Amino acid sequence: MRKSGRKRRSRDSDFEQLRGGELPQDAVLRHFARLKRDWAAELNDDSAIRQQATKYLRQLAPPVARNTDEKSANAIDELRAITDQLAKRKLAAPRKRHVIPDTWGSYSLRFTPPYLGMGTYSVGSISSVSGEPVISASGVDALGQLSCSVHSNHDKPSAGTASNVMGVYFKPMFSQANARVSFESDIAFSWYVNSIRNKVGRVRAQGMIRLYQYDGAFVQPSLHSGAFIGFSIYAENEIKFNAHSNAGPTWHLEAPVSSNHHYFVVISLDCSASGAGWPGSLAGVSTMVTVPSITVSITGEPVLQPFS
């Protein structure tokens, strides 16, 4: 047993050396909090634009006669029942797909959960809340899993945004190199928008991978970024819905890197929904991504030295 423990400590030490050493977590979390505030400001701006657009769309909509007959009342109740059914959908866990890790390059780092480079992601962030929507942002450290969910209030206008993030960091061993970041993904989502009486409903979700340079603070903008989830749904006087669960592809991005800096691989997930209440519009979205592994492959580039 002692020999097994020594081997494990040796492997951990080798990995830590290839990663470029350990950063002080307190400083990382402090600067990451500032980065999250920047992201939240961007989401708030988007939300304000959507709310303003909805206001003007309502002003342009023609007046609607209030039908009070039994058939119209029944139709409203049935549409509400459909929304209740969609809101109760559970996200199905996709089947695991085994992928051979990318090991090309001079050396590779393969990270597995938990991804605690930016702290725990068991609790995410809630922002842009109005009118008491049902909203949550959570994660499972041990699985490398992020989740968010927003459902508009049944009785009154409401909106909200939920988000979460996880990440790892590394420092290349070469003064000039190229980093190729890849990760496996299991993705699940479900959304619905139900609208009558010219009342607009919206849902939105986005999953991003970003590579940041870190020099005691996160350098903006990111060196490279890509979206692995992205949809924005608008409905007026109609019902729309969809659900999806699948073992996603292996996503990747590349960027030049240097041993002069640390770098953070940041995976984020956010979702939002807004509705006017019923009878009117209801909207909801639930999204989950699980990342079994993150691989960083470093390829050193030759540096020509002048002859003396």
Would you mind describing this structure in some detail?
The protein has three helices and 14 strands. It has helices spanning 2-19, 25-60, 70-87, and strands spanning 107-111, 125-130, 134-140, 145-151, 158-170, 177-183, 186-195, 201-214, 218-235, 239-247, 251-257, 262-275, 281-290, 294-300. The chain has one domain. The strands form three sheets. It has a five-stranded antiparallel beta sheet, with helices on one face. The chain has a five-stranded antiparallel beta sheet with strand order 3-4-13-7-10, with helices on one face. A four-stranded antiparallel beta sheet has the order 1-14-6-11, covered by helices on one side. Strand 3 (134-140) and strand 4 (145-151) form a beta hairpin. Helix content is 23%, strand content 44%. With 308 residues, the chain is an alpha+beta fold.
Mean pLDDT: 80
Q: What count of domains describes the coordinates?
A: 1
- Cα shape: elongated
Strand adjacency order, main sheet: 2-5-12-8-9
Output the structural class. alpha+beta
Q: Secondary-structure element sequence?
A: HHHEEEEEEEEEEEEEE
Walk me through the topology:
Blueprint: H1 2-19, H2 25-60, H3 70-87, E1 107-111, E2 125-130, E3 134-140, E4 145-151, E5 158-170, E6 177-183, E7 186-195, E8 201-214, E9 218-235, E10 239-247, E11 251-257, E12 262-275, E13 281-290, E14 294-300
Antiparallel strand pairs: 1-14, 2-5, 3-4, 4-13, 5-12, 6-11, 6-14, 7-10, 7-13, 8-9, 8-12
Tags for this entry?
308 residues, alpha+beta, five-stranded antiparallel sheet, 3 helices
